[in-house]
Amino acid sequence: MGPDGMRPRRAGPGGMRPRRAGPDGMRPAEAGPSAAPAACSPARPERRPRVPSQAIGIITDVIERYTRPELGAIWTDQARMETWRQVEVAACEELPALLGDADGPSPADLEAVRGATFTVEAVSERERTTDHDLAAFVDVLAASAGPPGRFIHFGLTSSDVLDTALALQMRAAGEVIVPAAHALTHALANRAREHAHAICAGRTHGVHAEPTTFGIKLAGFAFEAHRNAQRLERAFAQTAFGAISGAVGTYAATSPEFERRVLARLRLQAEPVSTQVVPRDRHAELICAIALAGAGLERLATEIRHLQRTEVRELREPFKQGQKGSSAMPHKRNPIKSEQISGLARVLRGNAQAALEDVALWHERDISHSSVERVILPDSTILIDHMLRSATSLVLGMVLDEPRMRANLELTHGALFSQRALLALVESGMAREHAYRIVQELAQRAFDEGAPLRELISADERARGLDLDAIFDYGHYVRHADEIIARLDEIA
Question: What is the rounded average pLDDT of the residues 124-141?
Fold first, then answer.
């Protein structure tokens, strides 16, 4: 168990079983977050593309269906403890400067510390006694180093290691997620340019309003995706803070200079005032940024879902050879990827609420946040990675039906041109309220009777003399499309 009383979930019947130990009794380390320089860690084994169910002791509730190996590997027990090891070794490397050559570790001692090893099984077994996962880890790592192991964890408290190591894990997650967020922006921008002049109905309240282009629609999503990518980049950057400040953040056993030197080895910034922990508003900001990015993806997914409805049918998700939309109805092509994104966005919003609840810890710290973070940090990073890549695939593969878009424009029998007719009457000298009521009456007749609005206006004495060719011109609505689409050059 960890200090929060939570034991990492073990492999279950779903196949999440750890790999067998090698002939030396050691299991190969999964690829995890990169952090320490070569001097602080031994050569890593070659990274293998493995699914999370084959990883060692994965500690996330997200099912394998949504977990890519790159993200799943960051949150395994093996990877988590490897970041602990990196922090412990980096701290030992700076003990000679803190304690002096006489009292600090010798070069030989440091070499033994760098070579110290652990296995997840050994730590789990030791934890049965300690009921504290970090303390169990320190015991195992120190024992493997022999007498020099006495320098491991010197002057540190658990959160020095846990929070600093967590920053390494979050940085590693960001190195995967942020590029995926930018890739979605580029995909949307490219499709927007491709369909800059694909005229379709713009809808407000779900009702036809005025013509727009599908490219303009996608341009709006591209800019939103760009803003979310920037938010994610900033949010991950502000979590790259560690703390080596001791039991209540006063450096009672070390010094601020020691902290700076240790964190420099790990390429992390020092938390200005850390009490015992890094303040949880940093983690909450990240999870909220992830949730907001998820909301943007849900908005895109909702648009796709609406446009794929049978009654609209202007767009559809890619449908591969051999795919089935329904076990019962062979004709079905459902927007399942978009629906999945919409559903997972709800999970991200729930996690954001939990992250906000974690901010208010007691005094210098408590551990009410720890059990929560064991769930929401892996889950949220894994899910947003899956959702970003799924959305990018959707954008690149979605199929437009431009003839259907044109046909749908005629569903209102020309009522989409009502504002053009209104303004033409006003320009002719008619009072706006009078002009509005005339056009409203004729547009409603077009709806109710199925008569073209152009013909109704042409036959109405009150609207005599209007230039109907100019009013009923789709080109008027898209004449600025190129200028709008060109704005994408700023971001992609």
Answer: 97
